[in-house]
Task: structure prediction
Amino acid sequence: MSLPNLTLIGERINPGFASSRVLLEAEDLSALQALAVSQMEKGAHYLTINVGDKATDRPEFLVKLIEAVQDAVDVPLAFDYPNHSVQELCLRTYQPAKARGRKPIVNSVSELRLDMLDLIKIQPFRLVLMASERIENGQELPNITAEEVAQTALRLVRHIVGKGSGLTLDDLIIDVSLAPIATDSEGQTRRAIEAIKLIGRDSELKGVHLIVGLSNLGIMLPKFALDGSRLSTKLESAFLTLTLPHGLDTILGTPGRDYQMLPPDDFVLQGFQEAIALDGFETLLRIQQLYKQ
Result:
């Protein structure tokens, strides 16, 4: 990875990847340790730990995995679970001393899951805030506009910092949510970019971090663009080119990808910019023109 100011959370210890799912199902700790080492060597600054349903069905395996990974690498871990009791188990198992004193990441809290904040009594952590959904009049609603995402982020930050939770702005990482561009007929990618810009220039949010699950962007697309470049990596680089200057500084992604800031005349960047400026099916057609004659 050639972007030194970008924090990368390695995503591969997750049953969403077929090869990782095999290792998790087999509870192959030595192979999972090797996967952790590989991600660290390829530039990961944190490693996600997600064992799927085993987190509740086999919590003892989750404990063993955290311990095994911390024996193999010294990068901090990110625990990707909406379940309060699972996060509690992760935090009670995690040893900061094995990560050179660095805090783990709890992923994630939304306006629906504010009870997660009481986990700070176990040990200090950093926290991902989901700004893609909100509570309004007692109902859970998805955020449709960039303004709604930014307003939700601001409410969450105000609540957490104002509550005296012990979490600082530097501990907070706002997730604006990123969907696959291959199915984006509703402007989700444009919304994410606009939300990053809004949050990035809000003086009250200065000091927080911004994250997306970057590898979501290019799934379901062919390997190569018409110019011969790797399409997913180029699309991810295009997204970074448009958002890093506005405050995005953290990604959940695959270590080892050649992320770059692209020049204005790059074939994929131009197509990406044109696609996200369009609406509905026109967006999808413009993306298809990157890989179809």
